[in-house]
Amino acid sequence: MLKVFVGNIFAESRAITQYLAEEYSEKGEKLISQDCKKVKATTNVWLQVEGQQFDPNASKLAFERVFKGMFGMTTDPAAVQELEGKLQKVLDVYEARLAKSEFLAGDSFTLADLHHLPAIHYLLGTDSKVLFDSRPKVSEWIKKISARPAWAKVIDLQKQ
C-alpha cells in the first residue's frame, strides 16, 4: 500500500501507478499526458480496457499456466481454453488499434502499455505465447514495451 497523505491510502496497483505518474510527471518519462486532453482521455480508455478486459483474462490464464504448477496444483485445460478464447477477442481489438498507432494510447508509451507487462511476461513463457505471436501488431508492440530499460531492471530483480 502507498500512503499518499494522512488519511488516504492507495492499495490498488493501478491507483498507485496513476498517482506516481502524476506526482512525478516532471521527472523521467511522462506516462500520462498533461498536454493534450484527448491523449489523456485515450490513455484512460485503454487503462480501463486493460483493467476490465485484458487483465482479468490474462491474469487468470497466467495463474492456470504458471502459478498453479508452482503450488503443486493441476492446470485446468477447460479453463485455459475458455480464457484463451476470451483473450483472443481482446487481442483482436488490440491488433486493430495498434494498426493505427505505435502504442495503445497513441504514439508514446503510457501507463496503458505499462500495465500489460506483468501478465504478458508470464504468458510469453507458456504455450499461450501463440496468442500474441499470431498478431503482428500486438507482437511488435510487445517487443517495444518489453525492451524498455526499466522493464529490463524489473526482470533482473526477479532473477535475484
β content, as a range?
under 5%
What count of structural domains? 1
Overall pLDDT, averaged? Answer: 86
Structural class: mainly alpha
Largest sheet: 2 strands, antiparallel
**What fraction, in percent, of the residue positions are helical?**
55-70%
Radius of gyration: 16 Å
CATH fold descriptor: Glutathione S-transferase Yfyf (Class Pi), Chain A, domain 2
The CATH architecture comes to Up-down Bundle
CATH class: Mainly Alpha
Strand order of the largest sheet: 1-2
Short description:
The protein is mostly helical and 160 residues long. The protein contains 8 helices and 2 strands.
Question: Mind explaining what this structure looks like?
Answer:
With 160 residues, this protein is mainly alpha-helical. It has a single domain, classed as Glutathione S-transferase Yfyf (Class Pi), Chain A, domain 2, CATH 1.20.1050.10. 66% of the residues lie in helices and 4% in strands. The protein contains 8 helices and 2 strands. It has helices at residues 13-23, 37-70, 77-98, 111-114, 117-123, 129-133, 136-146, 149-159, and strands at residues 2-5, 8-10. Strands 1-2 form a two-stranded antiparallel sheet. Strand 1 and strand 2 (8-10) form a beta hairpin. The chain is globular. The two termini are 23 Å apart. The model is unreliable at 1-7 (pLDDT under 50).
